[in-house]
């Protein structure tokens, strides 16, 4: 069942906009953790410990992504991709809005950080369920020769959400500077989430279901979807889940220096730079990330996903090596250069991920495979990267350890990409499951 051009455009728009809104919610917390929550929610612990614990709550939510991925993957394979997208949108937006209403530690004591952690966990469950369904809806609607480009739509959602979150905080830092930002200004971007949820609902409500899922549900002569897709995934495809997760993690470790709020905290804390300009620099870097993400999706349709990853990890490695030498100058121009160069590498190792994941797994378990592999990769890569970076600097007094940490992760990603066989353009329909189930690795037959 082929999609029309107008349907495809509507799907790409809906998945891109909706995913950007969800990542806005998720990254807004990450950026605020090192700027606000370490003082208002965890302040009694002291500056160093409070910052580490604030970043720990950023990572804590990742531990619940597999739960969201398990639930979303199961229902995505059973009920369709579209249903899952609507549920996760409302769960994420509701949690973000409630964070904007939370009293501080001074007002209600220990219940403030406890409530904050509970809402962050709900964000983690929602994020774990959102990405896989959005990815499959976009890629399974795409023409075979444009999967990378179509799949870059929901991929753009992450840097777009980062741009929106830091842009909103920068705007509020200008509107409510100084103490006013800490008193009430930070809350406005969280409360604005309810407006974005309504927008997300309106753009997603009319989207057609994935043609691959529709064909599977209508073709009663085809092999039925397994009753427990997750069990089949772990029984037959566990090595593929691990390798795919490592590939994603290698991007996430470096990406969460910005997306996890570490750079924002480090530059405004240890380097004493002003909060507003740093937020604007991160916003500009996110714009670079958007452009290179779209480019990576497009070029991967021409040169293959594998080659795009290889090039991307080489560029990301160079970005990692130059990041802190430039940031440590405390010169805003060099900070922008360092983050911008890193963002080029991040985009080149991110834009093609949607199409790559969709081409890894057979149709009947694709929802579970994509969602769970992504969730595991997020834990390995982004969950505690900001906390680890903060702890390394706290212990050594230098950013050299952070650079080594990022470079090792990037190198592992490069070798993982080299180990995978390129599957660009493989048929995604349920009638091709036998072909989809074989030939994933270079050394395999």
Automatic annotation (TrEMBL):
Domain Major facilitator superfamily (MFS) profile, residue spans: 11-425
Q: Which organism is it from?
A: Corynebacterium breve
Q: What is its main location?
A: membrane
Q: Which UniProt keywords apply?
A: Cell membrane, Membrane, Transmembrane, Transmembrane helix, Transport
Q: Which InterPro entries does the entry mention? A: MFS (IPR011701), MFS_dom (IPR020846), MFS_sugar_transport-like (IPR005828), MFS_trans_sf (IPR036259), Sugar_transporter_CS (IPR005829)
A Pfam entry, by short name: MFS_1
Q: Which PROSITE patterns match?
A: MFS, SUGAR_TRANSPORT_1, SUGAR_TRANSPORT_2
> What lineage does UniProt assign to this protein's organism?
Bacteria, Bacillati, Actinomycetota, Actinomycetes, Mycobacteriales
Q: What is this protein called?
A: MFS transporter
Q: Which SUPFAM superfamilies match?
A: MFS general substrate transporter
Q: Report the membrane topology from the UniProt record.
A: Multi-pass membrane protein
- Bilayer-crossing residues are 12-37, 49-71, 83-102, 156-176, 188-207, 237-258, 278-300, 307-326, 332-351, 372-393, 399-420
Among Gene3D superfamilies, the record links this protein to: MFS general substrate transporter like domains
Top-rank lineage group of the source organism: Bacteria
The places in or outside the cell where this protein is found are: Cell membrane
């Amino acid at each position: 069942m082929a999609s029309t051009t107008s349907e495809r455009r509507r799907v790409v728009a809906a998945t891109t906009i909706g995913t950007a809104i969800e990542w806005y919610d998720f990254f807004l917390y990450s950026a605020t953790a090192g700027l606000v929550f370490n003082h208002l929610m965890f302040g009694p612990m002291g500056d160093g410990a409070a910052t580490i614990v604030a970043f720990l709550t950023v990572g804590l939510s990742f531990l619940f992504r597999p739960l969201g991925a398990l639930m979303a993957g199961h229902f995505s394979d059973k009920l369709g991709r579209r249903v899952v997208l609507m549920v996760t949108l409302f769960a994420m937006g509701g949690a973000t809005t409630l964070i904007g209403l939370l009293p501080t530690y001074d007002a209600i004591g220990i219940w403030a950080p406890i409530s904050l952690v509970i809402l962050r966990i709900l964000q983690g469950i929602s994020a774990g369920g959102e990405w896989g369904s959005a990815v499959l809806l976009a890629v399974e609607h795409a023409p075979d020769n444009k999967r990378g480009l179509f799949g870059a739509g929901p991929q753009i959602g992450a840097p777009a959400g980062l741009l929106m979150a830091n842009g909103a905080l920068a705007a509020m830092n200008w509107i409510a500077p100084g103490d006013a930002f800490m008193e009430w200004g930070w809350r406005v971007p969280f409360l604005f989430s309810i407006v974005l949820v309504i927008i997300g609902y309106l753009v997603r409500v009319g989207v057609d279901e994935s043609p691959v899922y529709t064909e599977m549900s209508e073709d009663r002569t085809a092999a039925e979807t397994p009753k427990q897709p997750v069990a089949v995934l772990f029984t037959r495809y566990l090595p593929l889940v691990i390798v795919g997760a490592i590939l994603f993690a290698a991007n996430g470790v470096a990406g969460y220096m910005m997306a996890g709020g570490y750079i924002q905290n480090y530059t405004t804390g240890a380097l004493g730079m002003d909060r507003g300009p740093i937020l604007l620099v991160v916003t500009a870097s996110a714009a670079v990330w958007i452009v290179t993400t779209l480019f990576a999706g497009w070029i991967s349709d021409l040169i293959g996903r594998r080659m795009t990853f290889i090039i991307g990890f080489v560029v990301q490695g160079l970005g990692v090596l130059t990041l802190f030498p430039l940031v440590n100058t405390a010169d805003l121009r060099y900070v922008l250069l360092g983050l911008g160069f890193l963002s080029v590498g991040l985009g080149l190792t991110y834009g093609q991920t949607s199409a790559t994941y969709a081409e890894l797994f057979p149709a009947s378990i694709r929802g579970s495979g994509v969602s769970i592999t992504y969730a595991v990769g997020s834990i390995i890569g982004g969950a505690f990267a900001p906390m680890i970076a903060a702890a390394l600097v706290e212990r050594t007094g230098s950013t050299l350890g952070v650079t080594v940490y990022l470079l090792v992760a990037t190198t592992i990603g490069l070798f993982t990409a080299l180990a995978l066989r390129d599957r660009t353009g493989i048929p995604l329909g349920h009638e091709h499951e036998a072909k989809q189930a074989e030939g994933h690795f270079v050394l395999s037959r």
